Amino acid sequence: MPLETAIPATIRRRYSYKIITALLGVLATTVAICVLFTAHVLATGDGSTVSTGSVVSGFTGITIVFFLHLGLVTIVLGGNVSLALSQLAERAERIGDGDLEVDLETDRIDEIGLLYGSFETMRNSLAVTLDDLETERERALTAKQETQRQNRALNDAANRYSETMAACADGDLSQRLEPEIDNEAMVAIADSFNEMVADLEETVAQVIRFARIVDETSGDVQAGASEIRRASREVSESIQEISNGSEKQTEDLEVAADEVNDLSATVEEIASTTGSIAEQSAQLSSLATKGREAAATASSEMTDAEARTARVVETIDQLNEDAAQIEAVIELIDEIAEQTNLLALNANIEASRSAGDGDDTEGFSVVAKEVKSLSEETQAAVDDIEETLESIRERAALSAEEIEAVDASVSTTAETVSALNTQLESIVDGVTVVDDGINEINNATASQATSAQELATIVDEVASVSAETTSQAQQVAAAAEESTATIESVSTEVETLDKRADQLVDAVRVFDVSQQAVRADGGWDDA
């Protein structure tokens, strides 16, 4: 392009400069034509006037020439740009079709030349990018093949893991994952799973051992509770018999008190009668006979009272023996309560351990609380029984002492009445010594009246103590019945615990654990 090479480089670098240069050329050409036209008009005129028509025609021609030049420049410049852009678009399409060998060289240094340079840079970058893409494609293909190989290995390992996990899910906790793949994640999964299964196996083994211990212990406790329940019933029956005997004793003592009061009145009457014997000597024989009969009756009543007192002493001794038996039973109940507390503590400890591992331990906790509550109620009942027994022992000892005193008094009174009977017989046989006999009778009857009054007081006190003993015996009987009911409730709960222990044993039989894990606490039992 010789024309373009003739244009200065400054104008060639900017397409806008080209347009301005072309416009300036058109303007200069138009001005030149206008000057030539003016000179022509002036040359053809007379030198004084120029016709208006000539001027208008001249300007019209100049305008037409100007626009013709302008259109020509526009066509030339636009066609040049259009041609350059068309060529560039064609080459760009070839590049888009994959032909990177397209010639993008040009001698233009304007915007079109820059556009050619940009396309060439883009083509070179695209070629480099395609080379990189080819390299990456080969790498991706290699990585894909390696990934497929690893996927096959992972699938094989996953199948093995799945089989082992399925076996563990079915209860065989002796299974372990064996990682046979060079993959840190799969090895970590295998190690974590093996550790988890080992912990679960140990937990199940502990549950098995604990279930067997609970089963055996609950069986022993159930047997002990049955024995305690039987003994408690026997104690309750014995205490009820004691209560009934005490009630009968109270009734007998009340009768004895009435009889002693009658005896006291009789003795007082005898004393009054002996005071007037001096004036009624004619009736001495009859009165002596009556006195002998009364003395015989009193002697018989004293003998009966002495026998009844002996029976009361025997009853109290029997009450002491029964209280000793109750105390032995209480000691046994106390030991069972301590064992029950220990069992509840163990159940709470095992429930806490199971809660730490995520197992459901609500059943253990409820049974442990119930057993502990029953144990506390049993202990409270035992304490009440011990207090009642202590009170019974104290009152029984006091009653024994008082009854021994009554027995001594009754013996003294019996001896006194016997002496009176002898004296009355002597009076019948020897009326001649009436005065001396009367004096002796006065002295004897006075002493007898005092003794009879003291005896009546003692018998009343014994009757009061016997009534209180009856009340205490009834309270002990009620406490024994309550203890029996509590023990029956404990026995029922122990039976429930035994059933739940059996259910727990049946539940853990689903799991297969290594025998070594179970033998860690006492051996394995497949029974």
CATH class of the largest domain: Mainly Alpha
How much strand?
under 5%
Structural class: mainly alpha
End-to-end distance, in Å? 111 Å
User: What is the 3D form?
Assistant: rod-shaped
Second-tier CATH architecture of the largest domain: Orthogonal Bundle
Could you please say which CATH topology of the largest domain applies here? Helix Hairpins
- Rg (C-alpha, Å): 68 Å
Residue stretches low in confidence (pLDDT < 50, at least 5 long) are 521-527
What is the arithmetic mean of pLDDT? Answer: 69
Give helix and strand order, one letter per element, not per position.
HHHHHHHHHH
Number of helices: 10
Tell me the domain tally: 2
Q: CATH homologous superfamily of the largest domain - what is it?
A: Methyl-accepting chemotaxis protein
Approximate helicity band: over 70%
- Secondary structure: number of strands: 0
Domain HAMP: 79-131, 152-205
Pfam family, one: MCPsignal
Transmembrane segments: 20-42, 62-85
Region (Disordered): 223-251
Explain what this protein looks like in three dimensions.
It is a single chain. This protein is mostly helical and 527 residues long. It folds into two domains: 128 residues, no CATH class; 297 residues, Helix Hairpins. Helix content is 87%, strand content 0%. Helix 4 packs parallel to helix 5. It is rod-shaped, with a radius of gyration of 68 Å. Belongs to the methyl-accepting chemotaxis (MCP) protein family. It holds the Pfam family HAMP. It comes from Natronosalvus hydrolyticus. One of its GO terms (biological process) is signal transduction.
